[in-house]
Amino acid sequence: MQQVHSAQILRVTLKDIGKETLGAGCDGVIIPPGLKIAAGVRTADCLSIFVYTEHGLTGALHAGWRSIAEGIGTRFLKIAESEGFEGRDMIFQAGPAICPSCYEVGPDVLKKFPGQAAEGNKLNLLKALSIQLQESGAKAENIKFSRKKWECTAENDCFFSHRRGDSSRMLAFAIQY
Q1: Residue 84 falls in which region: left (phi positive, over 0), alpha (psi -120 to 50) or beta
Q2: Bridge partners of 24?
Q3: What angle do CA 99, 101, 102 make, to 5 degrees?
Q4: Residue, of 133 and 159, whose pLDDT is higher
């Protein structure tokens, strides 16, 4: 995927197998049942979100504030539901990302996230995406965002962080087998 901080989602098909690069200008991918491939996302403070169902759907999302503000969670659920999958059956798991106490943003960003996702000038990406997913049909108990201080990309040197000035990115995969 050539990530651009958007809400664009690529639905992988059989014709895509073997291509070197998929998804120019997208930040999410849906792998339907039966395709035995891996999809990866690169992050350095944004959320990497992996989605799966017991019925074989797999997905990966790169979700920063722009993607969430544009509705990447809602868009993913709509596409998956158009394929016959239920939002309430999907499991969402987040990888390491910047924590709210380290994610200071300007008023132009904060106004895109009214309510519980912002506190003062800090934005909670996990909460913002969780709210969006629940409002679009996902069950709260299926959104797995365990957060510990050591998982904050800005605070832990084991992770790359754009906020710390890193130009490298972490790569995480969702694999359907």
Answers
A1: left
A2: 2
A3: 70
A4: 133
Please state, in angstroms and rounded to a whole number, the distance separating the CA atoms of residues 114 and 136. Answer: 17
Whether 72 contacts 61, CB under 8 Å:
yes
CATH number listed for the domain at residues 9-170? 3.60.140.10
Strands 91-94 and 47-52: antiparallel
Residues 6+ apart with CB under 8 A from 28: 1, 7, 8, 9, 10, 59, 60, 61, 62, 67, 72, 75, 76
Q: Where are the domains of the chain?
A: 9-170
- Asked if the model's pLDDT at residue 154 lies above 90, the reply is no
Choose between 146 and 161: higher pLDDT: 161
Residues 6+ apart with CB under 8 A from 114: none
CA 6 to chain centre: 11
Which residue, 91, 86, 31, is CA-closest to 58? 31
